[in-house]
Amino acid sequence: MASDIPTVNTSVDLPVNNQVYRVECSVLEKEVAIMAGRLAALLSQRFSQEISSITLPLKFLDFRYKSIFGDTPIEYWSEDCRERIVSAKVNAGQKNHLSQLIHRLNLSLPQIDMLLMAGLAEEHEGFADIFRSLHPSGLPRPTMGLLAQLTEAQYEQRNILREIISTSKNKYLSIFIEDEEQPFFTRSLCLIDGLWPWLHGIDVWPEVLSVVDYLAVMVGLDHWLEEPEIKNITQHLRQFSTFSLLLTGEHMNSAVNRAAALCRHAGVNYCLVQLNENLKKNALTLLQIHCLIRNVVPIIQLELLSSSEAEKGNSNNDVLDFTHFFAPAIFCSDNHQHYKHNYINTFDQRPIQCLQIKTLNTSSLRSIWRTLLPELAADTDQLAARYPFEPDQVQAICADVRHLCVDYRNDNSNNPTLSTISLSSVATAVRSRSGTSLAGGLQLIHPIADWSQLILPQLQLSQLRDAANRLSLQSRVLDDWKFLVGKRGARGVRMLFSGPPGTGKTLSAEVMAKALGVELLQVDLSRVVSKWVRETEKNLADVFNTAESTRAVLFFDEADALFGKRTEVSDAHDRYANLETSYLLSRLERYDGLAILATNYRQNIDTAFCRRLEFIVEFEEPGVDERLKLWQCHIPDTAPLDTDVNLSELAMLFPIVGGHIRNAAVSAAFLAAQDRRKINRQHFMISIKREYEKSGKAYREIPRR
After folding, report:
1. Distances (CA, A) of 681 to 521, 577, 624, 665, 677
2. DSSP character for 477?
3. What CATH code would you report for 624-695?
4. Quick one: how far is CA 501 from the chain centroid?
5. Cα(178)–Cα(89) distance, integer angstroms
6. Which residue, among 133, 123, 136, has the nearest Cα to 190 in the 3D structure?
7. For 451-618, CATH number?
C-alpha cells in the first residue's frame, strides 16, 4: 500500500473546467487537509448524511480536503504520516516547521494526530464550529473522545492516549493543554500558546515568556573565546548538548553579553529571558518547548530576592525544572547569592558547568576602545586603564558620547556636525550613566578642585601623585611587563588618609578624582551599616558594584566605622561583625579602581586592612608656611582687604588647620559685607575666635593695634 501513496510536494495540480491549476501549499496545510478528510469520513460513518446539522460540516470538510487533493481517496493517507512529512519537498525559502517539531520533540504518531486535531480549531472558524456542535459543553475544541474515535482503527485501544498524556516526559514537555477536571474522554484538547502560528512560519514568542531580542557585542572577546575552558563550552553549544551553564559576573549585563557572545561564536540561536513572577511552571514548560522546536538556547537572567526575602532565607517554591529539557540552557547571575528561584535543584539530572567571568586583559580592553571609538585611537591606552568596561558597556558609552557631541548650532540643514570627541566627553558620558543608578548610601560628587588648591607638604603631595600615576600606568607594569601575574589584589589602588579633621583628606580625594577624570563617590556610612544580619554586606556589594560600573574614586570617610579592628567573638553580633569585616577585606582587594579610606584615628583601623594598602598618607596640622599658603588660597585676589590685614601674622599667631582657615576666611568676608566695609584685621580675629570655640580649643586674645 505504501508504494501506492502519491508523492507529497509543496504544490498540487487541480483540474478545474478542463484546465490544470497549480496550488502552492505548505506541508502543514496538506496535513490539515488530510485530517479534514479523515474527520469527514468519521462523521459520515457516525451520522446519516440526511441529518441537516451534519450536511454543512461534511461539505466544509470535503471542500477542505478536495481543494488540495482533488479526488484522491482518503485511504491513501492511512499509513504512518511521519515519513511523508519529514521527506516532503519544500520550495526555496520555505521551512518545514512541522517536520522540525516532530524531530525536536520526537513525537509519536498518536501525538501527531493530537497535534493536527487540536490545530484545526486554530486553523479556521469552520473547524471550530464543527467541534462546538460535537462538544458535550459546546466548546469550539475537539475532545479526547473525538480523537479516540478518529484513531481507534489505527491504535486499537484507548489506553494509548491515556499513556501519552500521563507519561512524565510528555507531561513536562506537553504541547497540549487539557481540562484535567473533566472525565478523560470529554476533556477539551488545545495547543500551547504560539505553537500553531509558529508552524505557519509566524515566529512570535508568547508574551508571557518575556523574551527579548539581544545582540551580543563581540568586540574584544577574541582572546577570551580562545581560552580552553571557553572553547570546550562552545563545542558543547555547537553540538547542542544537554547541559546547564551558570555564568556569574560582577554585573548581570556583563554575564548576559558573555552568554550571548558564546552562542554567537558557536553559531547557535539564542533568546534572552527575563525571569519574573509570570514565569511559573506552565510558562517555564512553554519556554522550553518553544526553545526546543526553534533550536534556540535560552539565556535566563536569575531574579534576586529583596532584602526582606533574603533575610528570611526562603527562596520561591517554584523550582526552575529543566530536567526534561534536552538542550543547552544558560543561567546568568551577578555575585549575589540569594535568588527567588531555587535554580540549583534544576541541575540534578543535567550536567552543570559554572563559569566566573573575569575582567578582560589589557590588550582586549584596548581593542574594544580602539574599535568602538576610533576618534580617540591615540588615547586607547588611557581609556583602557581608566575604564576597563565590558564590550556592551563601552558600546553604550560610545553611543552617548556621539549623541553628546552632535552640534546643531552652526547647521541650518538637517545634517548636524559632530564636534570634537575628547576624553572629557567620555568622562561626561560615564558620569551620566553612573548618576542614573546610584546605590543607596552613595553620594556622587563632581570634582572641581585641582592640584593648585591642595596645600600639603611635598612628601604627601608626592604620595598622592604617585597613587594617581599608578592607576594610569598599571596596564604597562602589570600587563605589558607582567608584574604580579596571578596575584590577588594586583589591580587598583587602596589608600589610607589619616589625620585630624580639616587637614585636607576629603579635598585630596576630590583632587585625585579630578586628576583621573572620574567622579568621587562618597560613602554615607549611616546608610550602609545595618543592624540586620547580612544587610551590611548587601549594601557594601551594591556600593562596590556601583563604583566599578562608574570607575569612580570610592571614598570612605570616617572609615574606622567599617574598617575597625575585629573583636573577640562573645556573641552572634560579634561573629557577624567580623564576617562583615572579612567580606570587606576581600571585596576591597578585588576592587580595581581607587579606594580611599579616611580616618581621624589610624590606630582604630584593623591591621589586616593596612597590609592591603598601597599608600598610607599622614595628614598633619599645617606649619606656618603651609598656613600662609592656605590663607592665600582661600582669599581670592578680588577680595577687598584692608591695609591692616597681614596674612603672615595670621599664619604665625593661629595654628589652625585648613578647614578652619577656609571657614574663617569666608566668615570674615560676610562680616565685612554686613558692616559695608573692607575686610579688616578685626573681622578675621572674630572669625578665628569662633572657629576655636567650635573646635573646643582655648583662644588667646590678640591685642588690637
Report:
1. 39, 52, 18, 11, 12
2. I
3. 1.10.8.60
4. 41
5. 33
6. 123
7. 3.40.50.300
Residue 415's contacts (CB-CB under 8 Å, 6 or more residues apart) are none
Q: Which residues pair with 520 in a beta bridge?
A: 445, 553
C-beta separation of 625 from 457 below 8 A: no
Tell me the three state secondary structure of residue 87: coil
Phi, psi dihedral angles at 28 (to 5 degrees): -65, -45
In which element (H, E) is residue 266 found? helix 252-266
Contacts of 232 (CB under 8 A, 6+ apart): none
Q: If you classify domain 207-356 with CATH, what class do you get?
A: alpha beta
Could you tell me which of 23, 22, 21, 27 has the C-alpha nearest to residue 7? 27
CA distance 138 to 262: 51
Alpha-carbon distance of 272 to 298, in angstroms, equals 6
Helix (H, G, I), strand (E, B) or coil at 668: helix
CA atoms of 298 and 566, how far apart (whole Å) = 45
* Whole-angstrom distance, CA of residue 442 vs CA of residue 539: 10
* Residue 178 cell numbers, joined: 487539557
Residue 255: predicted pLDDT: 92
Kind of pairing between the strands at 442-445 and 352-356: unpaired
How far lies 367's CA from each of 218, 363, 381, 658, in Å? Answer: 11, 6, 10, 45
The C-alpha cell at 236 is 558543547
How far, in Å, CA of 283 to CA of 270, rounded? Answer: 18
Is residue 220 a contact partner of residue 367, using CB atoms and an 8 Å limit?
yes
What contacts 61, CB < 8 A, 6 or more positions away?
36, 37, 39, 40, 43, 130
Q: Which of 271, 238, 292 is nearest to 103 (CA)?
A: 292
Distance CA 338, CA 309 (A): 9
Give the per-residue pLDDT at 168.
Answer: 55
pLDDT in tens, 624-662: 999 999 999 999 999 999 999 999 999 999 999 999 999
Please tell me the number of Cα atoms within 13 Å of 532 on its side-chain side. 11
The answer to whether 305 and 342 have CB atoms below 8 angstroms apart is no
Q: Is the CB of residue 533 less than 8 Å from the CB of residue 307? A: no
* 115 CB-near residues (< 8 Å, 6+ apart): 101, 107, 175, 176, 191
Q: Where are the beta strands (DSSP E) in 17-132?
A: 19-24
Give the C-alpha distances (Å, rounded to integers) separating 186 from 223, 474, 495, 606: 60, 73, 75, 74
Those residues whose C-beta lies under 8 Å from the C-beta of residue 60, and which sit 6 or more positions away, are 126, 130
Nearest to 566 by CA among 579, 554, 556, 557: 579
Q: Which residues of the chain have pLDDT under 50?
A: 1-10, 14-16, 20-22, 305-317, 338-341, 346-347, 567-576
Copy the grid coordinates of residue 112.
Answer: 501527531
> Do 648 and 641 meet the contact criterion of CB atoms below 8 Å apart?
no
DSSP string, 617-646: EE-PPP-HHHHHHHHHHHS-TTS-B-TT--
Residue 188 to residues 114, 226, 283, 626: CA-CA distances in angstroms?
Answer: 11, 52, 20, 89
pTM tops 0.85: no
Give the model's pLDDT for residue 304.
Answer: 57
The per-residue pLDDT for 387 is 86
Q: Which among 598, 580, 495, 574 is positioned nearest to 539, based on CA atoms? A: 580
CA distance 388 to 478: 14
- Helix, strand counts (H, E) of the chain: 30, 18
Beta bridge partners of 248: 333, 356
Contact 431, 549 (CB under 8 A): no
For 576, phi then psi, to 5°, come to -70, -35
d(CA 44, CA 39): 9
Cβ-based neighbours of 688, under 8 Å, separated by 6 or more: 650, 654, 656, 660, 664, 699
